[in-house]
Amino acid sequence: MWEYTDAVKDHFLNPRNVGELEGANAIGEAGSLSCGDALKLFLKVNENERIIDATFMTFGCASAVASSSALTEIIKGMTLDEASKITNGDISDFLGGLPKAKMHCSVMGQNALKKAIADFRGVQIMEKPGQIVCECFDVTDLEIIDAVKKNGLETTEDVTDYLKAGGGCGNCLERIEEVLEAVKAKG
Amino acid sequence: MKIVYTDNNATTKVADEVIEEMLPYFGELYGNPSSMHTFGDQVQKKIKQARQRVADFINADPEEIIFTSCGTESDNSAIFSAIRAFPEKKHIITSNVEHPAINNLYKELQKTEGYKVTFVPVDKKGLLDLDLLYNSISEDTAIISLMWANNETGVLFPIEKIAKQANEKHILFHTDAVQAAGKVPIDVKKIGVDMLSLSGHKIHAPKGVGVLYVKKGLKFSPFLVGGHQEDGRRGGTENSVSIIGLGKACELAKENIPIINSKVRELRDYLQAQLLDKIISSSVNGDLEQRLPNTLSIGFDAVEGESILLMLDREGICASSGSACTSGSLEPSHVLMAMEVPFKSAHGSIRFSLSHYNTKEEMDHIVTAMVPVIQKLRAMSPFWKDGKVI
Fold it and tell me: Whole domain around residue B367: which residue ranges?
């Protein structure tokens, strides 16, 4: 069994802010049925760009549900500028930490939030810069480099835990290794 | 909280009779069975009895039984022995739904030893493509190895039929009977199998003991090279306590097969019917007929397995899932993927595996618990709306 913190268990068993939000004016989706987890985030943003309400619908494991629940609690009351600075680390910290292999659940929260903010502002999220490394989970080399640097990832398994990259068919594991080595070489 | 244990394909309760049989050998009767004194020899005699009991269980001769430490060791021993017996043959035939105990060995052999492995596919019901299997046999084939019953779905492969083909073509045939044992009768003489693996803890013996049956006359290379134990075929001082327990467990398992195929089958069928009836958008994985009597793999659309299990856990219900999130990998079970079970139900598939210790009240408890769990999870699923998958 996973070692979940009491906060994760609590947010899984008693999730806050579940369901569609009537009058939502920003929606962000991340993940998919095939990935095994997906999150749909609903925001109600006022004229001052402040998030006055947030709800979610999540398909996924306990940590996916808990991460979604935590995310809505964190961002309620924030301005969009403040919310846009929220990272997966903040979600994980809010829950007292997540098992390493479950970090991608918090990344999913961060991605859905980014998309919801872009949705409100009417901004098209640009095609992701960089080259796709993991086809299964749509992860680019730049995202891997970013995650490796920010989180001090050491191995391909770490990269998979954080980004899911390499966790599907596994064809890209060698390429991930190359990207990882390149980052390490540069220090 | 009362525990409802329906995870018997993972491991089983050690039978009280087995514990009783083992207890003296944990305590005062600690002698080494190889010793030249009566104190050790009484353990040797008890191991001899256990070997006979295991042999009787699968209709083998006692000298065809090698005690190992687990099913994985039995499987590994069988494959390594086969490839050492025929070093010039570089081809192995198996299925694409095997247990990791052997599946990862094939991957290793492919990668490091240049073996070609044919992973014969299964259809949507989990049944084997026999034509493809037979057609893939070549002069280069060292061994065919197939599981008898699938651990996740309970689907049975026609082992006797395949063994016959293998024998006709003079190809070694091994079966991993870890899940089949105690649920379907095993008669190695009738099937004509060359090697067969068993695991103690799946049939109410303790963990840490397994069996490899090796047909008389077959050339065998030991996997664990050491002392003279097991007639020089498996080194290491015998795990005498567990072996003695396994002997008793085999005796009980033989007696219990009719109960598993009547009472336990009825319980499984009842649970299956109730869940399908009370929870919409649910479906059984695997062939309904060619299936172990104790196993139910059932998928619930638009929800995820780990979440279901953790909520069931709060009701004292033990089951398992083929979902990615419980195993540490991200893909759903390779077995369900091989059967092309759609993602919407593969991620939400739960395996209930029963034993003769289960009761109808327990099945009712599971059904009562499952209904609100699925309801709650679907209420928060973005893929579920107005009573159906979106």
Answer: 4-10+257-381
For A40-84, write each residue's pLDDT tens digit. Answer: 999 999 999 999 999 999 999 999 999 999 999 999 999 999 999
Beta strand pairing call for A37-45 and A51-59 = antiparallel
- Residues 6 or more apart in contact with residue B323 via CB below 8 angstroms: A36, A61, B304, B305, B306, B332, B333, B346, B347, B348, B349
A59–B332 CB contact, under 8 Å: no
* Cα–Cα dist B122/B340, whole Å: 9
For range A79-105, the mean pLDDT: 92
Tell me if A37 and B304 make a contact (CB, 8 A cut-off): yes
Q: In terms of DSSP bridges, do strands B116-120 and B317-318 run parallel, antiparallel, or are they unpaired?
A: unpaired
Say yes or no: A38 contacts chain B, CB-CB below 8 A. Answer: yes
The SS3 of residue B255 is: helix
Would strands A26-32 and A37-45 be described as parallel, antiparallel, or unpaired? Answer: antiparallel
Quick check: is A76 in a domain? yes
Pairwise CA distance, residues B263 & B256, whole Å: 10
Task: Count CA atoms within 13 Å of residue A6 on its CB side.
Answer: 0
Q: What is the mean pLDDT of chain B?
A: 95
Bridge partners of A43, per DSSP, are A26, A54
User: Helices (H), strands (E): how many in chain A?
Assistant: 8, 5
CB contact under 8 A, A19 and B382: no
CA dihedral for B31, B37, B43, B47, sign (positive or negative):
positive
Q: Which of the listed residues A121, A145, A178 is the one where a domain comes to its end?
A: A121
Helix orientation angle between B240-259 and B38-58, rounded to the nearest 10 degrees: 30
Q: Are residues B139 and B46 in the same domain?
A: yes
- 8 Å CB contact between A29 and A35: no
The residue among A23, A128, A117, A4 whose CA lies nearest residue A63 is A4
Residues B290 and B216 in one domain: no
What CA–CA distance (Å, rounded) separates B70 from B239? 11
Cβ-based contacts of B382 with chain A (< 8 Å): 29, 38-40, 57-59
